[in-house]
Design goal:
It is a single chain. This protein folds into 2 domains: about 200 residues, Formyl transferase, N-terminal domain (Rossmann fold); about 100 residues, Formyl transferase, C-terminal domain (Methionyl-tRNA Fmet Formyltransferase, Chain A, domain 2, Roll). Helices cover about 25% and strands about 25% of the residues. The strands form 3 sheets. The protein has a 7-stranded mixed beta sheet with strand order 5-2-1-6-7-8-9. Strands 10, 11, 12, 13, 14 and 15 form a 6-stranded antiparallel beta sheet that branches. Strand 1, helix 1 and strand 2 form a beta-alpha-beta unit. Helix 1 runs parallel beside helix 2 and helix 1 packs parallel to helix 6. It is elongated.
Length: about 325
């Protein structure tokens, strides 16, 4: 194992754990990991440990989980590890007392081509907005959110039917490789000095990527068919786009939709109208055509493809004519 640079890694989900694993496999010394505090999850509300914490503990790396990043005790713990470099991936906002600690700085991996899509949900918003290209960026932290000097960027194409989950996994792998290249560049003294302002100046509109809440995930069937398709795949599999389905008894059930096929220009259907043969297809009208549902989930049930769903719940559509 290399003895330089001494790294402290900050992260919580699997997206970050992939980079942590890659860093360690390349022989860089990760002297400590900082992750989110354990929190209750699931029906039993058992304490859930983050993917980063689980991986780090399995490989003998000390883990810190501060509720407060400005806690003097935590800051003292960090300083005892004498980090040369800190790496932040999918973590919360960090105070200057933390990111300014190491001599080589603190850098972040962000899942977009900065300065576009600054914010908590860049993968989701890139797909929702119908982008055909995104990427990953490494940059040094400063006082502003996602606005520090860029070190490296790597472009990645987005498929026309690709979901946020599928793109997430590809960016996770691309990002882990970019992290290694970034470490090597910083250690070599060739990190660059690319500010984001010149890049931002060349864009007529900077698109943001704010956090997504379940309440904002309801499908608007009055949009055009491509916009609905992008919205659904941009929220798949999590948190999941949803609509309210009218049941034959007059009640409503939440229906999550994860994959669709747009049928632009279809002459049949009005926004929210459902067409189904009860056996093989379910189509819902939008402003500019029908959209074919292929993977969906009724509240309290498992996720199914349309054929399986209709074998179990085809009776719903015998009297259902709209959303």
């Amino acid at each position: 194992m290399k003895d330089f640079p001494r790294i402290i890694f900050f992260g919580t989900p699997g997206f970050a754990a992939a980079s942590l694993e890659r860093i360690v496999s390349c022989g860089f010394p990760v002297v400590a990991v900082v992750s989110a505090p354990d929190k209750p999850a699931g029906r039993g509300l058992k304490e859930h440990e983050s993917e980063v914490k689980v991986w780090a503990r399995a490989h003998g790396i000390p883990v810190l989980q501060p509720p407060n990043m400005k806690d003097p005790v935590f800051l003292e713990q960090l300083s005892t590890y004498k980090p040369d470099l800190q790496i932040v991936i999918a973590f919360r906002m960090m105070p200057k007392e933390v990111w300014s600690l190491p001599a080589l700085g603190t850098f972040n991996l962000h899942a977009s081509l900065l300065p576009q899509y600054r914010g908590a949900a860049p993968i989701n918003w890139a797909i929702i907005n119908g982008e055909t290209e995104t990427g990953v960026t490494t940059f040094f932290l400063n006082e502003q959110i996602d606005a520090g000097k860029i070190i490296l960027r790597e472009k990645v194409s987005i498929g026309p039917d690709e979901t946020a989950g599928e793109l997430h996994d590809r960016l996770m792998e691309t990002g882990s490789e970019l992290v290694i290249r970034t470490i090597e560049r910083i250690v070599s003294g060739n990190a660059g000095d690319t500010g984001q302002d010149p890049l931002a100046a060349g864009n007529a509109l900077l698109k943001e990527a704010p956090k997504i809440y379940k309440t904002n995930c309801r499908i608007n069937w009055d949009q055009d068919v491509q916009a609905v398709h992008n919205f659904i795949r941009g929220l798949s599999p999590c948190p999941g786009a949803w609509t309210l389905l009218k049941m034959p008894d007059g009640t409503q059930q939440t229906l999550k939709i994860f994959k669709t096929m747009p049928e632009a220009g279809s002459a049949v259907g009005i926004p929210g109208e459902i067409l189904s043969d009860g056996k093989s297809y379910i189509k819902i009208g939008t402003k500019t055509g029908m959209i074919n549902l292929t993977v969906l989930q009724l509240a309290g049930r498992k996720t199914m493809n349309t054929g399986d769903f209709l074998r179990g719940f085809g009776w719903i559509f015998s009297e259902t004519h709209g959303i």
